[in-house]
Design goal:
By secondary structure, the chain is α/β, with parallel strands linked by helices. The chain is built from 15 helices and 16 strands.
């Protein structure tokens, strides 16, 4: 089957959404499908077209940016061309152009699956209010036009103001997660490089983005240091996130205050991420709103043997519930976060589970098979072979 995958940002951009789509696209390609990703040329140094991991990537030129979104004048032409050329559409939201791409799939009678990754919550401003209204209208139009909707968890689908309107179309598919087995030599080298020997290491993986709640983890440090004075927060992820410069500026005084207990290691490749997770005694995901709907990094951490403390948000609370490998805490609450982290640190063996029991649930190949089944269901409804 020839499958078109459409989303605003694709790799090498780093976010849970882009990592999900990369894993899904590569798994579909490995299973013999011809996969084309239609995305934005958000970074001028990237080629307009390339083949990466068995997936063809087509990037539409960007004329301007609006908050976290982009304006792509030629996207309509490219969408028409590639929806027509492919057998099925995998559309990933949120994105400004969702309704236009979904309309083409409906007009050309191509089966389409919409995957809803998160709500779009932008900083308050007039421009952002307009942008949010336009994107939300486009997202709702796309939901009505697409054949089926994929959600990470039933928990998030039922609580989402968006997905809850279309539950009759929603199918739950666990997200694809893969990470190498940690190499103990790499772990030792990581610990040595960042001076972590003898430290209690709390990991956090993600962009510097307002929804990540990093300030609440830093706010938990004083209480944690009472019991673990040699504690270090190690943060893996890009420092310059699109549309988040104001948040980074807001965070800088806290980062300076805790500079002796905080290390930023930047964006890591999969092998390095495995070493990072294994080097941590615990990882935290203190997200604060519904732009976080699951947290793939929770499963990556667990697969590397490290338990997690995460926010009690719809969807985000599911990994610890599914695996028993951690705890959830109320959002925006540094005291509760500190208490849960101390509990897991003190009783770590109680929270660790075998890698295989977790990995099998989230295999990219198994996720790709479920997408194939949904496409076949839609094709049967259309009377296609």
């Amino acid at each position: 089957m020839k499958i078109l995958v459409a989303l605003t940002y694709y790799r090498p951009h780093v976010s849970g959404l882009t990592i999900y789509v990369e894993r899904l696209s590569r798994a579909l390609a490995r299973r013999g499908h011809a996969v084309t990703v239609l995305t934005s040329h958000y970074e001028p140094s990237l080629p307009l077209e390339e083949l990466m991991g068995g997936v063809r990537i087509v990037r539409a030129p960007v004329l301007a940016r609006v908050s976290k979104g982009v304006i792509m004048p030629t996207l309509g032409f490219l969408a028409t061309k590639y929806v027509w050329q492919n057998d099925a559409l995998s559309l990933h939201l949120p994105q400004l152009d969702a309704s236009g791409i979904a309309t083409r799939a409906r007009l050309f009678n191509k089966p389409s699956i919409l995957t809803y990754h998160s709500d779009l919550l932008l900083p308050p401003s007039f421009v952002n209010r307009v942008a949010s209204a336009v994107v939300n209208a486009s997202n709702h139009a796309a939901a009505r036009l697409c054949g089926l909707i994929s959600a990470y968890t039933e928990d998030f689908a039922k609580h989402s103001p968006y997905l809850s309107k279309y539950l009759h179309k929603v199918r739950v598919i666990a997200p694809p997660v893969e990470i190498p087995e940690p190499d103990e030599e790499d772990v030792s080298a990581f610990v040595e490089r960042y001076g972590l020997k003898g430290e209690t290491v709390i990991g956090v993986a993600g962009r510097f983005a307002a929804e990540k709640g990093i300030e609440y983890l830093l706010g938990a440090l004083p209480r944690i240091m009472q019991k673990h004075p040699k504690v270090t927060v190690v943060h893996a992820g890009p420092r310059e996130a699109i549309g988040e410069s104001a948040y980074l500026r807001k965070l800088e005084p806290l980062l300076e205050k805790y500079r002796n207990h905080y290390v930023h290691v930047g964006t890591l490749n999969p092998k390095q991420m495995a070493a990072f997770f294994r080097a941590c005694h615990i990882t935290a995901l203190p997200s604060i709103n519904s732009t976080e709907t699951f947290g793939l990094v929770q499963i990556e951490s667990m697969m590397c043997g490290t338990p997690v403390v995460a926010s009690d948000l719809p969807g985000v609370r599911q990994p610890t519930t599914m695996t028993g490998m951690g705890r959830t805490v109320p959002i925006c609450n540094s005291d509760a976060l500190a208490e849960a982290i101390l509990d897991v640190l003190d009783n770590r063996n109680r929270y660790v589970r075998p890698r295989e029991a977790i990995a099998d649930i989230f295999l990219p190949d198994a996720v790709a098979q479920k997408y194939e089944a949904l496409f076949e269901e839609l094709m049967r409804k259309r009377g296609k072979p």
